[in-house]
């Protein structure tokens, strides 16, 4: 299965590329904004679509770590690098600039769902602190709902649930660990 992004609203559409032959033009109607658009299935297009399907979870280990999005009905697996400071995690939408934009059709994930603060302590270890961002469905850490004022320190492998989507923290490598 492959995906294409609507050029108008950024919603993405999943299709079965095996049904089509190379060189064929496909017409899609975006089920979000109803825009009609077409793409031509060439070899380079298929390669480009395939490229991001097996991202490396450890790729940002030397830096500030990553958020790994588990594949589900709404989204492909994604690895999104974290930065120092506040990282807003949410559903990617056009024109909204956040640090961890998750490409998904999960409507239960807010566009600015929760915030993961990343900083180094005096020893140079990277510290992760999670808080909810007043999201509609709440932020769950290991199946426990975070309260409005909770600020929770999380470690490598922590499992967060945002709407119907599960994400995992892949922490940075600590220097003296
Ligand atoms: Zn659209």
Brief descriptors of the model:
177 residues, Tumour Suppressor Smad4, 2 domains, 6-stranded antiparallel beta sheet, 5-stranded mixed beta sheet, 1 helix, 5% helix, globular, binds zinc ion
Short description:
This protein has 177 residues and is mainly beta. It contains 1 helix and 15 strands; from the N terminus they run ββββαβββββββββββ.
CATH architecture label name of the largest domain: Sandwich
Question: What class, by secondary structure content?
Answer: mainly beta
And the CATH topology of the largest domain?
Tumour Suppressor Smad4
Task: Count up the helices.
Answer: 1
- Biggest β-sheet: count, sense, barrel? 6 strands, antiparallel
The ordered string of helix (H) and strand (E) elements is EEEEHEEEEEEEEEEE
Poorly predicted sequence stretches spanning 5 or more consecutive residues? none
Tertiary shape: globular
Estimated helix fraction: under 10%
Strand order of the largest sheet: 6-5-15-14-11-12
The CATH class of the largest domain is Mainly Beta
The tally of strands reads: 15
Kindly state the mean pLDDT as a whole number?
88
Bound molecules: zinc ion
């Amino acid at each position: 299965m492959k995906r294409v992004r609507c050029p108008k609203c950024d919603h993405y559409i999943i299709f079965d590329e095996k049904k089509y032959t190379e060189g064929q033009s496909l017409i899609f109607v975006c089920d979000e904004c109803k825009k009609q658009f077409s793409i031509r299935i060439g070899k380079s297009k298929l390669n480009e679509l395939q490229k991001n399907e097996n991202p490396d979870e450890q790729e940002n280990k030397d830096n500030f770590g990553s958020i790994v999005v588990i594949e589900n009905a709404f989204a492909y697996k994604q690895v999104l690098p974290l930065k120092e400071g506040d990282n807003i995690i949410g559903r990617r939408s056009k024109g909204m600039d956040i640090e961890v934009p998750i490409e998904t059709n999960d409507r239960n994930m807010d566009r600015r769902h929760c915030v993961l603060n990343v900083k180094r302590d005096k020893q140079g270890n990277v510290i992760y602190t999670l808080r909810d961002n007043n999201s509609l469905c709440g932020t769950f850490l290991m199946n426990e709902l975070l309260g409005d004022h909770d600020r929770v320190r999380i470690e490598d492998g922590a499992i967060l649930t945002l709407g119907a989507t599960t994400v995992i923290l892949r922490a940075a490598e600590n220097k003296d660990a």
